[in-house]
Amino acid sequence: QVQLVESGGGLVQAGASLRLSCAASGRTFSNYHMGWFRQAPGKEREFVAALTWNSGATYVAGSVKGRFTISRDNAKNTVYLQMNSLKPEDTAVYYCAADLLELSSTDLTTAAVYDYWGQGTQVTVSS
């Protein structure tokens, strides 16, 4: 089992920045690809960003490209989402997720591939 705990959400004004953190415990963190997803009220959960176990590859949704950056620190068992130039449409619950590293390739932009999920942290951006 892997436990994931997000933090860093909050209420900010448009144009502000936030850094979300997701602390992992329970298994070897470097054995997992990590992703961030978000879900706004009344909408489907959507992909935000992901990176591979060794940060060798990163993926970012078009809606946040140039504003959001994903990173990880395997020594601290933590993945981060730096969010700059926040917009009201970024308002959502943000979830981190872990996908066990396997020999076959996987589409880290798809929620179904992830094995573990955190409880989420609320981000609210006011206009």
What this model shows, in words?
- With 127 residues, this protein is an all-beta fold.
- It starts with a strand and ends with a strand.
- It has strands at residues 3-7, 10-13, 18-25, 32-39, 46-51, 58-60, 68-73, 78-83, 92-100, 116-117, 121-126.
- The model has no long low-confidence stretch (mean pLDDT 95).
- The protein has no helices and 11 strands.
Key terms:
127 residues; four-stranded antiparallel β-sheet; mainly beta; seven-stranded mixed β-sheet
User: Helix share of residues?
Assistant: under 10%
Number of strands: 11
User: How do the SSEs run, as a string of H and E?
Assistant: EEEEEEEEEEE
Strand content: over 45%
Number of alpha- plus pi-helical segments: 0
Major sheet summary line: 7 strands, mixed
In short:
The chain has strands at 3-7, 10-13, 18-25, 32-39, 46-51, 58-60, 68-73, 78-83, 92-100, 116-117, 121-126.
Itemize the secondary structure elements and their pairings:
Blueprint: E1 3-7, E2 10-13, E3 18-25, E4 32-39, E5 46-51, E6 58-60, E7 68-73, E8 78-83, E9 92-100, E10 116-117, E11 121-126
Parallel strand pairs: 2-11
Antiparallel strand pairs: 1-3, 3-8, 4-5, 4-9, 5-6, 7-8, 9-10, 9-11
